[in-house]
Amino acid sequence: MRLPAFRRPRLPRTRRGQRRLVQAVMAGCVLALLPATWMYTVAGDRLRTAVDVPRTDVAVVFGAGLWDGEPSPYLAHRLDAAAKLYREGRVEVVLVTGDNSREDYDEPDAMRVYLTRHGVPDGRIVSDYAGFDTWDSCVRAKKIFGVDEAVLISQGFHIRRAVALCEAAGVESYGVGVDAVHDATWYYGGAREILAAGKAALDAAFRPDPRFLGPREPGVDRALVTAGETLG
Q1: Which residues, listed in sequence order, are joined to residue 59 by a DSSP beta bridge?
Q2: C-beta separation of 144 from 166 below 8 A
Q3: Residues 127, 96 contacting (CB under 8 angstroms)
Q4: Residue 176 above 70 pLDDT?
Q5: What residues does 67 pair with on adjacent strands?
Q6: Is residue 20 part of a domain?
Q7: Average pLDDT estimate for 51-79
Q8: For residue 221, what are the domain limits?
């Protein structure tokens, strides 16, 4: 059976048709960039460094993968920043949020172990085992753990989306973007953010419930009480 020959699309021959084509392409580009523009607008004045971020009770660290059960280099950079903020007294509690959908894959516990190795007491670490994506983590931080204000820690290519989504979820947020080597993973993450911005805008607009919600958990409140007792 002979397949039909592929025909290349024909460009308009008239000036009017060409002008409409250009206008359509430009409109498509504008629509594609709107979500990213929204993210940059919301997060614009909320980005800080580890040096000048306001003192806040809670830091939120988002999962970024495991290598042989240990935090990936990208995740380790995030955790290093959180540990530094804790040691300097800029945060009291670290909420680690990540994927634990399989028995052999546990981001929050790996993050907890790493933080304790770097000077954060176990009692100041709270685990969210159902942070399957950024929106879920933000909503759960607010609704499940009662976080109203937080420092968010992630790589630069992700931090604006994290801030925009947590703000939409009701968490007053400051973002700290940690350094990262500009390797293939970094470029992939940056390219992925262009597509992720569209989903983020939809999440912020329609505010879907996370995959798992469940009852309120007192972990953050208890850790803050412990922090207060220690200071007292």
Answers
A1: 94, 151
A2: no
A3: yes
A4: yes
A5: 70
A6: no
A7: 95
A8: 43-231
